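It is worth pausing here to work through a concrete case rather than discussing structure prediction in the abstract. The textbook approach is simple: state the sequence, then state the predicted structure, then interpret. We follow exactly that order.
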Amino acid sequence: MGTVYRKTVTKALPAGAELFIRKGQRFARWKDAKGKTRTAKLTTASDGADRIVIQAGTFTAKYRNGAGLVVETATGCHDETAARRTLGELERRGELVKSGVMTTAEDAISDHQPTALVEHFDAYRAFHTAKGLNAVRIKNTRARLVRLATDCGFRRLADLTADALEKWLGARAAESPSMSPGNRNEFRQELVGFGNWCVRTRRLVSNPFATVPKADAKADQRRKRRSMTEAELERLLDVARWRPVAEYGRETRPTDPLTRQRKRETWEYLPLTLETLDAALTTARRRLAKRPDFIARLERLGRERALIYKTLVLTGLRLNELRTLTVGQLQLDGPVPFLTLDAADEKNRQGNDVALRQDLADDLTRWIDRDRERLNGAAMLANDCQPSATLKLPARPDAPPSDAPLFKVPAALVRILDRDLLAAGIAKRDERGRTLDVHALRHTFGTLLSKGGVMPRTAQAAMRHSTIDLTMNVYTDPKLLDVHGALDSLPALSLDGERRSIPQTAKATGTDDLPASPFAPAFAPTTVKPCKSGSIADKSPSPGKSQTAARPRGATSMPVKANNPLTIAVSGLHQVERTRVELATSALRTQRSPN
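Step two, the predicted structure:
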């Protein structure tokens, strides 16, 4: 048989307590915060200090569970009768486990039912923290769960029902302005993830939200991004490079043509455009001629901003990944330049080496060298000494890395990009309602890879995507692909002229009597040996030879077109020259068709 009792604990002697002896035992008398007189027995601690002995306010049940172990459980009851009733329920559960009516897992689940839901949320957040998830993601997950619990009336685990969540999702879809399907799916996913965690930790038998359907995010997509063209990228980088200085050379105009007062509220700056950029730069340098240090800071700011855009476009980095980059993560002096993303800073928490095109690596090298020269000069002016050689970039790959951030990425980069787009004459939203933002530069990276003829699997590796569908269908803008040019590769089918005889179907061997098709590959992989993936070098003509000299034929008979520098493929750590496109062959064995 089990028993219920109040636990006794010791606490420090309250200030101002009166000590006295009653029937040979020592007691202490004091007044609590409410002014009520309290009395308790005294005991001596191991350090010789006096401590009061008090009883807990609630009863604790001590019994033998279904596994035969003696356990103690807090009943939460202030009344002894109620505590004994709780003890009876606990002993009954133990008997059900012994008899096989209830499993041990179901018995453990029953222990979590009285706990408040917010305490389970705290344990769920601790699980995410130990897992190493991003702090922003953990914060967003907690906020969504608390909002759902408040709106749906969830207080205990027993309150979690799919009907309540479906009603909440329906109400969010019907209100005005309605929540987007993608946003509703995010709230649903948070509860589904929480339910799965409760099942794994034996808090629930099954996930009550597993059957809640997802909303069709494609039917009502609120944010549609588009990719930028190469001409738009050139204009954007040019404006970003010089706009910080040009802002101080803009012309003004009166807000009221009839007024003659020259006050700040009576005039405004003219907007900066591509046509007025050069004139604004000249005016700004004239106005700031006496502040050369300030002009240098503005020029450095513009160079950094343009380099941020170029790095995002040519690497496909996400904005938060770029913010975490340090100088020590760059390997720029080797034969193949690349940067290393730490697993904690990457979205998929895997860690990757991202290849850098040579022109971008050169720009980053100059940027770091100029930054360290600037710091070296500032230190020299502060200490009135000669330039120090300790600030140079490490020459060896195994040199200690620097923890200095590569860029100072502003928190308001989205608004800065909007101003740069406006000055460059690039529409924020196109005719199809698709917009440009910082993440659209990653879309541009994926689209330019496809436009440059990069194999889909190589583009997936460069984008660091888990599925090829995400690379091809989400991060590739078909509007920028040369679909019309691809139609030129189809055979010519003329309907004019006299009727001509059509060759009969080839016998036995297939196509022995048919002329060679101009669309057939120059060679095909055999069925005996596996093909190896690789690149076919493109030999550039020497200065003394004709430009029409024949080049080695690759896996296709179509000529290899030279790409624009902004569309060169970047895959893994393979270095590809600007005028060459990597031609990858299949690594699988080919099988002869039965036909």
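Step three, interpretation. Residues 3-102 form one domain. The chain is about 40% helix and 10% strand.
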